[in-house]
Amino acid sequence: MRMAFGLVSLLIVLAICLLIFRTFEVPALESGHAAQKQAEQLSGRDENGVPAMDSYKAEAHSAGSKIDGITITDILPGGPMQTYYGLQKGDVVTDIGGMNVKTLADPGGYPMAKSLLDEAYQKQQTLVVLRGGSQLTLPQQHSATPAPNAPAQPAPGGDSLNNQLNQIRNIPSH
Predict the structure, then answer these.
(1) What's the total number of domains in the chain?
(2) Is residue 43 part of a domain?
(3) 11, 91, 94, 139: which sits with the fewest CB atoms below 10 Å from its CB?
């Protein structure tokens, strides 16, 4: 009889431990995973460690003697720039983070504009591209589940990495 009570009490303690783990630890782990994904993007790399700047090739697109865009000449399938933005070979980037490439290229030329395109992934900036005669703003907003090779969605509610870390630590954000 004592052994039965001991076994039952042990099972109850185990159930309570699992309930506590599920209630407190699982959400913290999920928040940590989201923060890790955001940290990867801020470092300029995807979850596989591929640098965004190495996931595409580009060249200056010019009208006459002035650079007016950046033509994507090659894109790594499944790479950061394709996954986040949905960039395709042949796209012409005309705006980076709300700034016109023509304006960006004036003082520093193509290298300046290209470096800002390299940083756009880290800063989660929007791009305006010309594709097949249409102007698109990337990344595009999609429904809850993005299609394969579609741009990824930013963190829900636009939570910053600091806010997510504070939530994990149970520190109120300001």
Answers:
(1) 1
(2) no
(3) 11
